[in-house]
From TrEMBL:
Organism the protein comes from: Furnarius figulus
Molecular function terms from GO: kinase regulator activity; protein kinase A binding
Protein name (database record): GSKIP protein
Entry's family note: Belongs to the GSKIP family.
Top-level division of the source organism's lineage: Eukaryota
Occurrences of domain GSKIP (ranges): 34-134
Amino acid sequence: RMETDCNPMELPNNTGFEEDSDYTDFEGTEVKDMRLEAEAVVNDVLFAVSNMFVSKTLPCAEDVAYINVETRERNRYCLELTEAGLRVVAYDFDKTDDRLQTPYHETVYSLLDSLSPAYREVFGNALLQRLEALKKESQS
């Protein structure tokens, strides 16, 4: 069982579902736990940025999570992750600025691509290396 930094009082305890089961809403469609989604986002691109982690101070919920990222250019951002996608909500860790009206990005790749040329280069190189490795595998 994974530990989270969420306050248990924030989570509904009357869902009637087993702890391990997928969250579902009343129509029977799946609801994502955004904190788990945020952890997956971080694990996916951590290699291509200087630092990235799910915020421990901003509130997490089923529908929103916050991710702090520092690009290789040393710029810091706080990202909001919702069903709508990811967007920058502040230019520092663990902050939100309601005046910021930044666009949503469908993927973390798209968002980081727009923020960090160094990310784009590292990610592109990793992709090329992977393709080379696959090419060698298929030739042997």
